[in-house]
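Homework-ish question, so no full write-ups if that breaks the rules, but can someone show me the predicted structure for this set?
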Amino acid sequence: MDIKRSWLKLLGNLVSIRHPLVMRMRKIAFVSAALCALVQPAFAKTISVAPGDGAQERLQEALISAEPGDVVELGAGRFSLTDGLSLDVNGVTVKGQGVKESVLDFSGQQGAGEGLLVTSDDVILRDFGVENSKGDGIKSKGADRIVYHKLRVEWTAGPKATNGAYGIYPVESKDVLIDSVIVRGASDAGIYVGQSRNIVVRDSIAMENVAGIEIENSYDADVHDNIATHNTGGVLVFDLPNLPQMGGHNVRIFDNIIVDNMTPNFAPKGNIVANVPTGTGVMVMANRNVEIFDNVLGENGTTNIMVVGYRFPQQDPKYDPLPRDVIIWDNQHGRAGWDPQFRGGKEIAAAMGGSFPAIFWDGAGGPARAPNIGDAVPALSLGLTDITADPATAQPSPLAPSTARPAALPAITLPESMEAAVR
Amino acid sequence: MRLILPFLACFAAAVASSAMPTEAPDILTANPQNPTNLSSFGFFEGDAGKPSSALIPYNLRTPLFSDYAEKQRFIYLPAGGKMFASADGKLQFPIGSALIKSFGYPDESGKLRVLETRVLLHRAGGWVALPYVWRPDGNDADLRIGGTRVPVEFDHGGTKASISYSVPNKNQCKQCHSSGDEIMPIGPVWQNMEFPRSGDRDRFLRAMPLLAKLSPEAKWDDAKSGTLNERAHSYLRVNCGHCHAPKGSASNSGLFLDGSAKDPAAYGIGKRPVAAGRASGDFDFIVEQGRPDRSILLHRMKSTDSGIAMPELGRAMVHDEGVKLLDDWIAAMPKQGAY
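A: Not a homework solution, just the prediction itself:
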């Protein structure tokens, strides 16, 4: 579907929500679609690459021969690519003429695990689109201070299990900025930040992915002013075992619109997100110090916010499967819980008068681990204190709201060079 | 390995100075530019079938699978250069060295037609990886840093195979050859090396006598050379371990097949996928003991879809014999509950 029409449809769906954020987000969405004036660094050499014959080799050679400070500029049009592209030079900007104007088309891709791979530091990616890569869309690994700005990563046929896993995929990086991007159709997470630290994801749209935005095994992240809609789950904060970086913590989810995440889960089984119930707003798994505040949540059929432990068998002595120190405060809740899509959910909903609550916690670790809730909606504990307990043994009970909000986490600050790149 | 470690810690000698002819031009250190033609190095006397006598040919007991391509491997050592070996048998080459690897397929007459030659140069600033593609007339090869694809047809077990052969670009060379931010050779590990030309092996041993204490690694396709487990580990180390290493391109997976794994999960046993996406094939574990049919590792080896296939680069065909080996390996594991 034409992406602008998708946006209009999406924004139309949002009109019924009365909140100043919606107005702000509408503005952001349209600004993102527009071109902006681009400022060239004073001494940068610009290498221009046009679409057409030999685009694969010409563009790849430009990405290899670029020197720090250079700009690789994509012309307007469709680049038909046969392999993955990669950038391994520090300080290079790759920019196109707009998210619809310059398109890296990977529908004919024959090799490589992603569309574009970045493995160098201080890289800026902006103003282009990536379509139909066979694996992930754009991956950056060990790429510190990377900026993703005004990008579109899309599987154009919409939700399909055969789509690539991640749309935008920074991993093992320090200082990550994802600003004004739109990602659609990822069979895992649209925007996925893994094993990284000091992260900002903002002003972006994630739609029709399994997970809209996912922060996994990462430290210090702000996720704000995004729209996550028509995913299976809107925003996920996970920590998983048996990985080099574990102990995910300090994640703030605020000022987002997380609505109508009712796309049936289309992730291939075996992946952790294949277990995300359709109709999930925010899901926190096994992280600590997570703050969820000032969001608009609604039209999520399972629940708006769930906080759970990692309940798969695992034997990693360095891993803590329990969520802890989660704060849920000042969110606006619309309808939720009319169709809970996890085992036992319907029975609990029936016992509660037909609807599952907007907030629930699985009870992992016992009352000392309970999330701190200030939202004015019913919340539930499943009472599954033991992380190995059978979910069938749940003992649902109401979760009492808190009266005082604990001290807040500090805001994430990125290096000035990164903020300058998006001004 | 722990026992011999004290004896091995870096022994050195001049393997090159007396033994190597010195006519080969020392272009490697003299010229900081990457030569645009392979002939500039003087590694070959005309076509790819005539390597200079200055090159030391070697084979690997367990090689990396590359779409059934035939490979020819050579070492170039500069005059006076000193070789070292680390305790784990990895050869350390002096500045000015080169590792040269040609890839090709037999033509209809059975003669090897070399498509490309990859050169790893050891410059003062580190290793550099350069892909050269041979011209149709076979007289020289041109540097193609952006990589390319070459349509290839060849006889594969009596049937004609037809593939789009991928020459890696310079970055893709580094993807496999990276250790942290550096480019490193992968192949030259003494326990996996063989020298077809008489005298070469002895020359290395004279220079580094303690290498003789390292016993040859199990050969993946020779049941007499080691147990099934040992042969599977050889195969995984060579075919997967360059990326699936703590400092390799797949470090974030937590799946380490380079021999560094300390627990079964790091070897994939009972380990759930992290970023596999549709490559999981709807299975739960990288390796499910006793169940090759449910192990993601084999599912990815058996696929040629670039969103699923492992290794990610340079594999348009399935390595049937390698799949068979790892199928046997997983099938032989006692079935256990996942952990």
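Now go work out the reasoning yourself. Hint: The longest strand of chain B covers residues 112-123.
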